[in-house]
Amino acid sequence: MPLAELGYQASARLIGGSAMKVLSIQSHVAYGHVGNASAVFPMQRMGVDVMPIHTVQFSNHTGYGAWRGRVFDGPAIEEVVQGVEERGALGDCDAVLSGYMGSPDIGTAILDAVAKVRAANPGALYCCDPVIGDTDSGVYVRPGIAELMRERALPAADIVTPNQFELNLLSGLPTRTLAEAKAAASAIQAFGPRVVLVTSLTTDATPGDAIDMMAAEGGHFWRVRTPRLDLKAVSGAGDAVAALFLVHYLRSGSAATALGMGAASIHGLLKATAEAGSMELLTVEAQDEFVNPTKTFPIEAV
């Protein structure tokens, strides 16, 4: 299914005459683009009013091997959320987006924030990027985070956006084949989320020169396949694609549309990054990809 057939405009800016609002709670770095430093600007470029709350404040991401800064605690997050609530702003939130949590008490604070937003606006969605680890490094979060994700965050979420490693871990199932990946996504949905986006997927059906993304909603599954790029080790793509998918889903109400638009934009961002040989995402330089992707890819029902 080509994106043009969906009649969807990626650059749409307003809902109901006012800017969409998202509360984004995740890590932040001063140098580079991971966590909120990767997710906030793409949403803003798409016309979203973002309220960012940082779970950590680091100089740079930890992949460099050295960094400075600190991890905040749950009460610090709760205090900022309380201040936002006192401004009467939680009722205007269309969604909460969460990423790297840092510690279980931060996870609790995030879920409390989700409950407050839903109390103020029952129609608000919660998109949880269940940051736990990846295939290359394994689990890289603190003890207790994976359990919190499975036992508390997934049941609270409307949308979850795991990578393949996180899909395997949270579902307890293998994903060597497309059928297995679909079963794993369905297992995640059984916890509570109605939408699952697998942000990177390689099965025995994936060609060696490609990478897949898959979305599940309402018993249906869709796949988008994009060319594999010659990238250096870059971080933050998962944070960006979760944000892109959330905004497109809020605007379209369709996981298929959100998958197609998110995949097109993230491919454009990664292609620009690869061509420049950059170790950091070129989030600012490639910003037009968020509203007008250079190339789109077919959405396949699978």
Automatic annotation (TrEMBL):
**Gene3D superfamilies, alphabetically?**
3.40.1190.20
**GO MF:** kinase activity
Residues annotated as domain Pyridoxamine kinase/Phosphomethylpyrimidine kinase: 109-278
Listed A to Z, the keywords are:
ATP-binding, Kinase, Nucleotide-binding, Transferase
Q: Which Pfam families match?
A: Phos_pyr_kin
Say which enzyme class the record assigns. Answer: transferase
What Enzyme Commission number(s) appear in the record?
2.7.1.35
Query: What highest taxon heads this organism's lineage?
Result: Bacteria
Q: Which InterPro entries match?
A: PM/HMP-P_kinase-1, PyrdxlKinase, Ribokinase-like
UniProt xrefs under PANTHER family:
PYRIDOXAL KINASE (PTHR10534:SF2)
The record, for NCBIfam families, names: PRK05756.1, pyridox_kin
Name of the protein in question:
pyridoxal kinase
